[in-house]
Amino acid sequence: MPVLERLQTVSKLLQQLRGIDALKELFWTELNYDRKNVPLSLRSWPEITRNALAEPPLLLASGGTGGDFHVIYNWFNSDDLSRAMERLVVNQLLQDHPYALMVFSNEGQSRWHFLNVKYDKDINKRRLFRRISVRADGGLRTAAERIAMLDLESISPDLFGLSPLTIQARHDDAFDVESVTKAFYKEL
Fold it and tell me: Would the pTM count as exceeding 0.85?
């Protein structure tokens, strides 16, 4: 699919993001990830983290050889998208899902965070949590451009031989704030 057409479709799906159906279409159809739709266990999670979610996290999609890169949807049971709670949930999920994109929504599914965790090259530094925010009333141009970059077919047209590390590197690039800022000032 041509880049402009993909960008328009991603933008349209983000505008329709009022529930999980548009999210499924985004990843399963538009961005070429494999369907999973599997609830994850909260059994060993601390109570405060379990209670923040309306339902268990959902392994929505996977990609790459062996399906080792995961897209995990987390639905909060409040209207707030607390970054502190996101951090708690992500820290739990990364134990079993080291290569992943985390997607969060508020209770009303009117606000969304697509969250990338990038590991800094300096081993002494912590993980970098980077978000793309999507709101019903918000501008979606940059979000659509960055999320369209996550298409697996654009990494490998035949979708063959994609390692989770390669997919993670593409996600790291898509969430790179410096390149977004440079593009913004270049456009000005």
Answer: yes
